[in-house]
């Protein structure tokens, strides 16, 4: 949106974004196509695209004159592409939820819109047509940082539906920021899977020929169409090169870089598989295969659970805050093996009484480590034992975010006592009994 | 050279695109060093790029020649000169303000207008030279002009943009790029096609080059400035010529391009008169499989094929010379080579010389249906390459019948002609760079830049005053080292008459000896003159330092010690004189200077000995 003066001027001349206009300012005359106002720009500046392709900004002043020269030209239309079903190929579903993957830029305005029709997506990534018959669902269009458990529930249902309708595998396109929360949620909500559920996204927008979206989509489709994995996982670039992707268990994956295409890494685990865009799948570690049992969809979720980070000088009153707000569970991200302050010089900074208060008030309290790598322990130090005595549950080698999602899932589907007992027991691969030597910094 | 009337009659049109790297502390959109320092490579990143769907689905005939299709791109990564921004793994940082300031100063000096707000654009790049598949660029000035010998030449646009990567190697599977160059701030200055002769093209390029050096902090050395020339004549075609090594050869190369287009038009007229046509490819492998022509035999033995095509009415015209030692056949061959084959054989050549037998020629002619006025071409190689090469060759041959093709061509500075690089691409696709905010231009600052416009006349007279030698002063004015000269004189206070001869004469002399003096960074040059000013080294010592600096990693002070160049001056020189007591002044002068040539300043010694010059 432009400033009110500009909008008024444009409305008077019946000018819309995309129209070719002439702007006269003093002695200067500019001709070009009116662009939408960039979100971050000064609203009282006209932006036009000159004939040489460049955009420039012209500041509004009361003397500025604007004239419409011609109307908006037709924007890009996808060539008519008939998507034929190939009986020899497996059927997969693609559930588009938002994010930069599977979107297209309008090269005129720079605006981005989702590709929701198979013919559009297949036009951009034609390789998929050779891998599988594709059905696309678009239950939402949301940036991953805006997601809540309500979207996890919707996606879980859409995945279950897709399997019911005959898909052998499902690809979920998703914004990358909270993809590992969603992958954990789906792992718990969808049990006894008949096939792979592959979450994928893009770190670089797909308007550019260099986007990682293309290979990620191809590798994810290969996994969904061919692999005998019956787990939820994330399939993204394994390295900065466009050579192959890793498929990482949904409860062991974490976004470890803000911008690199190989941002997702397994923590306390190895990747399950290495997938090349040419079609090969190499399995790198054990995984669940279809059990033949019926798919179990459990979408209950208790949103009143919180993740609290302990750090030097942190005020444990935060625990009381959650208790007072009626929360049902807390995951504490402790230091090292799972510590919080027990005997600080300032008594008020000891977390033990507060945790005890929370447990006594009926909350389930879990302890994880901000080291991310490695396992928590409740016995090595006295302080750890005090924490256990206060009623906190050490969450083994579970990632803090995964423990949070698991606790919400457990409290949403089971009684409190059951949830308490299940928090530190492995359900879907989120906890490993053993810590293998080469699981660090993979 | 012809007079201006001649070019007017031809409908000669010519414009320049000057690209100059700016001398900033950081790259345009990240904090990497923009200097191409020698350092070990950290590793390679391999990427694939795809053409994203076109805006209006229009297919540009140039795109079918895009050889990079499906190829892998390998980017070499270094520590101090390449970061995640360069390899498309991190969003761009804010626009480099230092670069913008230099660009705005240059725009002011070209009397250009600047937009109220600058918008960074992404210009789509399909050859892989940018890991992000687009180049960031912004329009910083418009409607400017420059005076060249009293004539105003319009400068319709001035851009600030990122330099591309340097190509290391290229084959049919992959292209390797050195990413260190990528993102160095570059200013592009385009002139209108108002240049009226090849000589004027050179003068305009010189004038812009001079202005850039006078106004801005610009990089010096090979590759830091590039002049592309757009040329056409009436009924000919716009051709963009790249890769001029120096401006001296520019007029002659443009002249050759005019000749080429004139000759191609002559060929076109003959072909039209003869109702020429281009035939279809015919597989001749079975006819030529046991030929004695080694070129073909080798391809066939390796499992390849031989294709031929009839060129109806082309006889004699393939061999028609369009530039010295270049024929229409050469042009067709250059197109075919884009597919990765070695070249073509055509019937205007001496076929017996290749080793063809009379029977073979007859059989080929028969198979292709070649008649009296016809010609043919042959191409051999692996099936896919050969088929593509024939397609390209026939595309070029058929264009000869009706036009001069629009092309990007390379300046061949040895033979003073132009060579085909690729068809001229259509307009580039641009869309907004949404990761960078629009930038409001500081009007007040720009107003000051407009007031501070450089006067060449004033610079010239100041140089003359400082250098005291009209020839050297004029040479300094036009030298790429002018900004360095100004920096040295300004910062160290060493007089111009000392600095200029060293920069202009001494460096040239050392360069001729094969010493890479252009690799000496500006800071080191400054340090050398600072040491001179501080009486730590003599003028002869400076020459010695410049000789050794390119090969040494030591800083200047250390190098002085290592080479034993410490100046003997003042009290130490007086002490030295005592060692020679009893000798005549002339003898002392001679002996001391022969022994301490590098350490003693002759004038100081003479003064001490009170010997008059």
Description:
The complex is a heterodimer of chains A (442) and B (613). Chain A is an alpha/beta fold and 442 residues long. Chain A folds into 3 domains: 4-70, SH3 type barrels (Roll), CATH 2.30.30; 91-297, Rossmann fold; 305-423, Rossmann fold (3-Layer(aba) Sandwich). Chain A is 24% helix and 23% strand. Chain A has 11 helices and 23 strands. In chain A, the strands form 6 sheets. Chain A has an 8-stranded mixed sheet with strand order 9-6-10-12-13-14-17-18, sandwiched between helices. A 5-stranded antiparallel sheet of chain A has the order 4-3-2-1-5, with helices on one face. In chain A, helix 4 (149-164) packs across helix 5 (179-189), helix 5 packs parallel to helix 10 (400-413) and helix 7 packs parallel to helix 8. The longest helix of chain A has 16 residues, at 149-164. With 613 residues, chain B is of the alpha+beta class. Chain B has 3 domains: 4-238, no CATH class; 271-402, GAD-like domain (Gyrase A, domain 2), CATH 3.30.1360; 455-567, no CATH class. Chain B contains 21 helices and 23 strands. In chain B, the strands form 5 sheets. Chain B has a 10-stranded mixed sheet with strand order 21-20-12-11-1-10-7-6-5-22. In chain B, strands 13, 14, 15, 18 and 19 form a 5-stranded antiparallel sheet that branches. A 4-stranded mixed sheet of chain B has the order 2-3-9-8, with no helix packed on it. In chain B, a hairpin with a 2-residue loop joins strand 6 (134-148) and strand 7 (151-162). Chain B is elongated, with a radius of gyration of 30 Å. At the A-B interface, strand 4 of A face strand 2, strand 4, strand 5, strand 6 and strand 22 of B. Strand 4 (55-59) of chain A pairs antiparallel with strand 4 (117-118) of chain B, so a sheet runs across the interface.
